[in-house]
Specification:
Layout: H1 5-14, E1 19-23, H2 27-40, E2 44-48, H3 50-53, H4 56-71, E3 76-83, H5 86-95, E4 99-102, H6 109-123, E5 128-133, H7 146-149, H8 153-159, H9 167-174, E6 178-181, H10 198-205, E7 212-214, H11 222-225, E8 233-238, H12 240-259, H13 264-286
Helix pairs in contact: 2-4, 2-13, 5-6, 12-13
Bound molecules: zinc ion.
């Protein structure tokens, strides 16, 4: 059923839960995520990457996700993730998205605020806006470990921590309804054990009443994620681990399914199962 993303998240927090959000590049994954949410009896968020939404096929995917969300037996919201382009934001909303992450986190502070305000002016009062303060290292759509890049994603993330002293001013001036934070979380693969800065998160949580959002949850241990809702983190974004699971499954199953009469339908069944199991485990971690 259709829901406002902020209402979904606020209701979850009141139960001591957070809502998982999963990047869907395709409809098979979205079906699996919604199926898992219906089994669990909890709401869920479908994320669409800006590179997806920037194409005509991507806008058709958003329209399809809208139909899937509306027909679900649990609350499902569709959000455009990490957008910087106002036209892509407007197109995604027109196609059926409920919410946008207007992401000016890579911009100077005042420009970040200006982007969120422009998004509000373009999209209108009814669209739920998430904003991001502090820089997240890594790539949202492709995960590279330190071996591949020679870089140090975790080290970069520490340099971009959200400055809690800016939080009150940022929330008041942007009018954002959710706030994505950088507290040692990164997009993609972590180098070693993630070191979440709970002290910084605590400091942010006391400075604003709007729900906080944790991106880059893949790789953060379950024992850490269960603490999120107590810190007013009401939305947790997953992407990399879901992709890893699906791609490993497809790699394992490909040869047998080619031999079995080019059985694409069977292969898609394994894709669904892998994504569904991942979504089920994330829902189990975050919901009470
Ligand atoms: Zn993200």
């Amino acid at each position: 059923m259709r829901t406002r993303l902020d209402h979904l998240v606020t209701a979850a927090l009141q139960q001591g839960s957070a809502v998982p959000a999963f990047t869907c590049y395709d409809f098979t994954t979205a079906l699996a995520v919604v199926g898992a949410a219906e089994d669990a009896g909890h709401g869920v968020i479908l994320l669409v990457a800006p590179k997806t939404a920037g194409t005509s096929n991507g806008l058709r995917l958003i329209a399809a996700l809208r139909g899937l969300a509306d027909a679900a037996s649990v609350p499902v919201a569709v959000q455009l993730d990490h957008a910087t382009d106002l036209k892509v934001m407007a197109d995604a909303i027109a196609a059926g998205a409920d919410s946008v992450l207007a992401d000016g986190s890579s911009l100077p502070y005042e420009d970040n605020i200006a982007l969120v305000r422009e998004a509000r002016a373009v999209l209108g009062a009814g669209v739920v806006l998430e904003a991001e303060l502090g820089g997240l290292a890594g790539d949202e759509d492709r995960a590279f470990g330190s071996e591949e890049t020679g870089g140090d994603p975790a080290g970069v993330a520490v340099a971009g921590l959200t400055d809690s002293a800016q939080v009150e001013d940022f929330v008041a001036r942007t009018g954002a309804q959710l706030l994505a934070v950088a507290v040692g979380n990164v997009h993609g693969k972590y180098k070693g054990e993630p070191q979440l800065r709970w002290d910084v998160l605590q400091d942010i949580a006391v400075r604003t009443h709007i729900p906080l959002v944790l991106h880059g949850a893949s790789g953060i241990p379950a024992g850490e994620l269960v603490k999120a809702a107590a810190m007013n983190v009401g939305k947790v974004n997953f992407n990399t681990e879901l992709r890893t699971g699906v791609l490993s499954t497809l790699q394992e199953q490909l040869t047998a399914h080619r031999a079995d009469g080019e059985n694409l339908q069977g292969l898609l069944g394994h894709w669904n199962t892998s994504a569904r199991e991942f979504a089920t485990s994330a829902l189990g971690m975050l919901t009470r």
